[in-house]
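## retry 2 of 3
previous attempt timed out at serialization; input unchanged, resubmitting
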Amino acid sequence: MSRTAAAAARRRERERLPRYWFANQLLLTLSGRRPVHTLLGHTLPAAYDRLIELAPLAPLRPAGSHAAAPVVRRCDEYRPRQGAIEAFARIACGDRLRALAFRLELGPDARWRCAAFDIGPTA
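## retry succeeded, writing output
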């Protein structure tokens, strides 16, 4: 297997982890590249309400019309108990690095849902 193929396989495996999947979905929504309703079944009510509030502001949209789209550089997690993940992601927005923290909870249907998130100051 070539280095490129191996790197692509590692990236695909990483993207299957709940923390990376949610980090990317939240980033797409909070940067204005995906509508809020795409996360409707993947968030608990309080987190969804917060998304509805923040999404029109697109707080993770990069400044300038020619700036590169923001990307998740790294995402780590802490599991305070079974069925809960507290994750934090480093988001590259142009030449800036932003933080995204979120909590995932495992539902009775064995699906992870975002219970809360924070991106820090939005102004």
